[in-house]
From TrEMBL:
Transmembrane segments: none annotated. One of its GO terms (cellular component) is cytosolic large ribosomal subunit. It comes from Paenibacillus contaminans. Residues 184-204 are annotated as: Disordered. This is Large ribosomal subunit protein bL25. The keyword Chaperone does not apply. Residues 100-181 form the Large ribosomal subunit protein bL25 beta domain. Belongs to the bacterial ribosomal protein bL25 family. CTC subfamily. Residues 5-91 form the Large ribosomal subunit protein bL25 L25 domain. CDD domains: Ribosomal_L25_TL5_CTC. Pfam families: Ribosomal_L25p, Ribosomal_TL5_C. This is one of the proteins that binds to the 5S RNA in the ribosome where it forms part of the central protuberance. One of its GO terms (biological process) is translation. The keyword Transport does not apply.
Length: 204
């Protein structure tokens, strides 16, 4: 199980009250679920940021006033566009005995043979969508790229899923590729400029 967060009850508030809440280091939020319906809450901003940095898709034990500790997952995060300050958080209550659909990070390890030969590793997908029981959801899916040669593609279907976990992203989605470095083409004009001028000589 992931980390535990303690939620505070939050009555429906005015804009000024929500602003004050944020100034006091709290993030307004909501939690939804079959057992609890919906509840307005507030979470400590530092604890929430720590969770978002370490594993934003983790299962969280959320201590909800009046409902006790419930397993939840983050459903939506709202941030201020420029400062990226947390504005609002939504949690979804889950059933530990029912599969959930979520996204997890892809972590590439090792150094590809193609990179050693001068190629460039370009990552196109940092996360994949999976489905499985909550207790089996990994914090990340790892893949050793050591065997990738220049020009190779790593597809989502090439990733090894843990037991009990189903890949829901399209198997043909490209996760990463080893790009072949582009050689600079020299134009005919550049070649002419680079060549020394040949002077015509007349023999008498």
């Amino acid at each position: 199980m992931g980390m535990t967060l303690k939620a505070e009850a939050r009555p429906l508030s005015t804009k000024s009250e929500i602003k004050k809440l944020r100034e006091n280091g709290k993030v307004p939020g909501s939690v939804y679920g079959k057992k609890i319906g919906s509840a307005s809450i507030a979470i400590d901003a530092k604890e929430l940021l720590a969770l978002l940095r370490s594993n934003p898709h983790a299962i969280v034990e959320l201590d909800i006033p009046g409902a006790g500790v419930q397993p939840v997952m983050i459903q939506d995060v709202q941030r201020e566009k420029l400062s990226r300050t947390l504005l609002h958080i939504d949690f979804h209550q889950i059933n530990m005995n029912e599969p959930v659909r979520t996204t997890v990070a892809v972590e590439l390890t090792g150094e590809a043979e193609g990179v050693k030969s001068g190629g460039i590793l370009q990552v196109q997908m940092h996360e994949v969508e999976i489905r499985g029981l909550p207790e089996r959801i990994p914090s990340a899916i790892t893949f050793d790229v050591s065997g990738l040669q220049m020009g190779d593609l790593l597809h989502a279907g090439d990733l090894q899923m843990p037991e009990g976990i189903e890949l829901k992203s399209a198997h043909e989605d490209i996760v990463a590729t080893i790009l072949v470095p582009q050689k600079e083409e020299v134009s005919a004009e550049d070649q002419e400029e680079a060549e020394p001028e040949m002077k015509e000589t007349t023999h008498v």
